[in-house]
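DM from R.C. (forwarded with permission)

"hey, sorry to bug you on a friday — could you get me a structure for this? deadline for the figure draft is monday and I only need the backbone to look sensible"
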Amino acid sequence: MNIKKITPLVLFQLFAWALNAQEVVMDFRHENGKYFNFHNIVETTDNALLVDCPMFETFGSGPDYGSMFYKISMDGQLLDSLFVPLDDIPLRTLFEPVPGMNGSYLFGHFERAGNDSTTVLKMTFIDNDLHITDEKTVLLGDFSGYAAISTSDMFIDPYGDIIASFLRNKCIHMFRIGIDGEVKLRRQLPEINYPSSLGVQVRHTWVYSRHPLRYSFLVQRVMATANDVHIMDSLFEETEVHTYGRLTNQPNTNYMPGMQEHLAEYDESSYLYASPALGVVNNHGYAALAKYDRSHNLLDFKLFDENNIDIGPIKVTAVAPDTIYYSYMTTSGRENQLVLACLDSELETRWIRYLYEPDCFHWATTMTALRDGKVAIGSYRYGHNPGRVFVTIVKDEYWNVGESPLHVRPYAFYPNPAQDQLRLNYSPDVQPASIELYDLQGRLVRSQGSGLECLSLQGLAPGQYVMKVTLTDGTTYTDKVVKE
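My reply, with the result:
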């Protein structure tokens, strides 16, 4: 819902739910000392979550590789687990529901052994109860000499096919593979030209548009100043290349190529691009989220900026109805915080939540918009004391604004806007118990348990706040308050 276009009546509702919009309803943590990644979160058909955590442990006799799958209830209880051993560290894994097959999920990964030139896609089918129901192996290539595959990617497209890609010696190899393992189409794209002194990474192959069906991938030039997006038709014929360099309409801010850039489809006419950004003049770090039309014209952008500290986006952006969830990480010395932001369709911030205490480096790698107005974000503890994975579900009532009833408030408050003090007059049949005042990020800025006929606003910055009034019978009411 676009906040700027709703009626005053619904606006009262929206602010009434601003506190609940950040409610954490599940926080799952698991540790075994072996994780080195967190791949994906899938919502099952029986109201649970399946998560995929690649892992390895080095023993005296050599490394042990695999992926650990957990089934978690919506309240954070571990229900079951499955370990799938692998012959090598996977270059890229896929874990998604199988189209048209409710309760069936596909785990796929590229695999090769040492200097073996043979590259295969291994497909493992898993049901709701974490039982393996089928396995397939698809030969992708038997190259002469060492197959120098540096990066790879895959996803399930709108046709229900697996789109797989990998980079080998400057060339992208594209595959369309059926769920039955049939290779329907393969193509080697022209060599990517770049200076020999610089590396190149190809990441985030995705659906660029659905009508007509087109795909794209990002080419990240290591130590360069720009990224390119290559766009292909459904037959993998390249149709255009677009370069992301300077953030348009923000002439002193450049995108920063690295590992966190990613694209996300918003609707048929626009897409999102996320990237670190750097102020050219003041050397200031940002997390940038931009919205472009299909001709790559900038529609809107948002720079996340917190107290002149380094900020980097995480490769997760989930789109729900008229709602965008975006995650980034703030870093300042050894303190790190993983942040989840909720934005509207015009990239205006609705709320921001700091998910964990700044005691470790959380690397978030997946985020999924769930049913019933919830979003799940998965991360793992990286660097210092690694080996722990996290799943957090945040409930967001913005999805259901038009469905909740209004309450008639048994009090009046005035003036609004106010400068220094807000006064409240209560109906004779009610008794107030407390007043709390929150900013729009959900932080408590005032709390009173007595003298509830007035609320001091002195010392607060001008702007909008949410006042929560609690009565002695436990009933609560929330209202928008403006401090001049």
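R.C.: lifesaver. DSSP finds one helix and 36 strands in the chain.
me: no worries. Residues 1-21, 400-407 have pLDDT under 50 and may be disordered.
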